[in-house]
Task: structure prediction
Amino acid sequence: MLKQLLGIAVLMFSSVTYSKVTTVTDILGRNVTFDAPAKRVVVGFYPEDYMAIGTETAYDHVVGMSKTIWKARTKNWDLYVKHRPSLKDIPDTGSVDTNTFSVEKVISMNPDVVMLADWQYKALTSEIKRLEQAGIAVIVVDYNAQTVEKHVKSTQIIGVITGQEERAAKIAGEYQQNADRISQRLAKANLPKPKIYTEYGAAGVSEKGFTFGKNMWGAIATMAGGNNIADPYVEWWGKLNPEMIIAANPDVIVITGYESGSADDAMLMGQDIDENLAKQRLAGFMKRTGWSSINAVKNQRIYGAYHGACRTILDGAMLQFYAKAMYPELFKDLEPEKAYLEFYQKYLPVVPEGTFTTKL
Result:
């Protein structure tokens, strides 16, 4: 009996010491207090980042998630579900961007922590107070801003939520080192900045897709030493007038895509996409009206990238990709696609196969 009581006491002590009251300063500068590591979590965004940083076991404590963004990458979602079928059983909270996010459903899940992207938090506004009044800690992270500072801080925050601070520090440190290597090499070379244009090519050749200003691909292009032609006209994302693109005469063009699109000639990139098909779709964009006069087209400096590899801690490889696209000699030693897949091999339980970067 004494041994049994001692065993129970040890277990109780272990559980008390394992979880401790912790305060983190989130990406918005809000001080949020909760028991860390969190036992019941709702993941609002960045599902792969949460697993990469927190390890696969972090999903043992995920009681709800917004599945829309992950399931939109059908091949990627299926790959993870095949490896971990229990992902299908995690309740869906709905999506903020389609106004289907249910605060009532989230509260019914009785989470300790709700992790939201910056844009989700700002869109929910008054609903946040309802979550906090229910005793739920709301923590904001942000990979969409696409800054090294916010990537690093968001990674550290997820490390605290999941109890993986050391792993988070390692991942954040590698991202910082990668960005520093590129910025230092650019500063030393002091070369003229090439003009670059990025477009999400899901709508196909005949319809202009979204481009990016100060975040996502736009920010990556700027970090990689480019002069983003959309920056003066687009705050976050939007469309440029076709004549503006031609007049700007970019030196480099990147067309991004997923595994499927809304048009028969949509740019296709990603898991299970053959590179020959990706190149074929990319070549179609070169035939746009007026584009034959653009330097990027004349010099065949047109590239394809996987849209799902942006706004994530995995996108250090895409920073390499943009740097090499704009400065091929300066960064000829970089292997962006290899770096992208190596992150999966090192930090995630699955490794996708397909085409994630390409060029004509």
About this structure: Residues 165-189 form the longest helix (25 residues). Residues 1-17 have pLDDT under 50 and may be disordered. DSSP finds 15 helices and 15 strands in the chain. The first strand starts at residue 20 and ends at 25.
